[in-house]
Specification:
GO terms for molecular function: lyase activity. This is DJ-1/PfpI family protein. InterPro entries: Class_I_gatase-like (IPR029062), DJ-1/PfpI (IPR002818), INH-QAR (IPR052158). Its EC number is 4.2.1.-. Keywords: Lyase. By secondary structure, this protein is of the alpha/beta class. It has a single domain, classed as Rossmann fold, CATH 3.40.50.880. It is built from eight helices and eleven strands. The longest helix is centred in the C-terminal third of the chain and has 14 residues.
Length: 212
Amino acid sequence: MQMIFVVYEGMTALDAVGPYEILSRLPGARVTFAGVHAGPVRTDTGALSLVAERALADCDAPDLVLVPGGPHVAAQTSDTALHDWLRAVDPATTWTTSVCTGSLILAAAGLLRGRTATSHWLALDRLPAYDVTPSPRRVVRDGKYVTGAGVSAGIDLALTLAATIAGPAVAQTIQLATEYDPQPPFTAGSPASAPPELVSHLRANAHLVMST
């Protein structure tokens, strides 16, 4: 199975690297990191780069596409070259997926119109502008379109896909091999469980945390 992980300037590394660590372990998986142009891209922290091994124009028949998000996706929600490629390959993909605000990119390209999707909780209210029904769930599947919520949800998305593609036993084996057994020190990973003052603070400063 040929998998294309899209990379671009300002993306969040874990959005792509988390799913990569799961999906690359599927039998027959061939993962390629690709961007509008080949070469390194700087991630959102400015301290880490990922390398696009190939240009998207050279990747014409992926079975699976994964689009990561990031705090500054405005350029990608209006990126004609990226959108053109997504629309060109989408009819033949088995799975078209995203993590975090990557769903805004898919939505802006018109691929999620009339569907239900998730995104980072601070970006959910942006989906209706693209005729997409937002869901707060961690992983949402609508046909072949699978979207994950913020950042760490990419691992859950990948395990969900792994189970669908190769069966629960394979997915569970990968989960065990990667020791994915979350036991966070705080219950602050969701606006439903985090202290209200933290939720209010992030909402009030969403323009600093997430510029879309």
